[in-house]
Amino acid sequence: MKPRPPATRYTLTAIVLHWLLALMLTVSFGVGWFMSDLPFSIQRLKLFNWHKWAGITILALSLLRLLWRLTHRPPPELPAPHWQQQAARATHGLMYALCFAVPLAGWGYSSAAGFPVVLFGVLPLPDFVAPDRALAATLKSLHGTLAWTLAVVVLLHVAAAFKHHLVDRDGLLLRMRPGRP
Hints:
- By secondary structure, the chain is mainly α.
- The protein has four helices and two strands.
- Helix 1 runs antiparallel to helix 2, helix 2 packs across helix 3 and helix 3 packs antiparallel against helix 4.
- The protein is elongated and about 60 Å long.
């Protein structure tokens, strides 16, 4: 029996998780940015709750994605200079870490501010910490800083993918494209 050649694309599960997280992160970041400048209102409270639900969903999807990645080999790296391969590994590692850190900091902030997270309005989640104004202020700032850091890292990731697609023309972007090869 002939050995199977290594896959040239990511698995369908990896592709779906990648694009679902990309969509969730983009929308959640946009809503977070928009709602932060709104005056206190019903709309702002609704957006805050939606943002919390999105954050918990992002946390869960990130865990699924990490577990999938740890149990399923990605396609082999494409030929590239060593520094580019190192930069790609570092960027991916940082994105994974931030996909956990941003929602956890937000959840901690919500707990410290005394606003429970009730997932989809029906499932109360445990508070990380007791209410504490000083801690809430620190975690709010940390959540914002981490979110902006994630946004910058995601933009670097997107720029590198387009560079590979438009300049190098090496097919890297096609490996994560939904649909048939």
